[in-house]
Amino acid sequence: MPEPQDPLRSLFQQAAEAGRSRTVAAPVAYITQRAERGRRRRIAAFAAAVCLAFGGGVATAVTLLPDRPATDAPATSPSPHSPSPSAPSPTGPSPNSTSPPNSTSAPGSTSVPSSTSVPSSSRYPERTAPPSASATAPPSTSAPPSTTTAP
Known about the structure:
By secondary structure, the chain is mainly alpha-helical. It has four helices and no strands. Helix content is 40%, strand content 0%.
């Protein structure tokens, strides 16, 4: 049975023949450039994947290592705690402390200890603010701070 003539079908066949007659193969240089670009992209993607895998492996190994060295104390650690004034020094009397002289006196005489005393500021070291606070505050002086009162 012959097919009926369809005007749309005949137009499609004419368009296909016109396309076939006008086709031209792409130049070899263009095809080669396209292949090189694709190859470079594949190599770059592979290199990025290798870098990510290596970096992830290193990060995992560093995290899971049991023998990590202990971290050192920061450079700006606070000064050691000074002993309280009422507690005796564990190493004996300090060179700054005053004690009565070891002299033997007669049983009836009384010995008066010297009235010289060492100021408390020389017995204990002066505490200073950490470096972060000293960057914003002016340096301390030995003079007492001046106070002003409102009238």
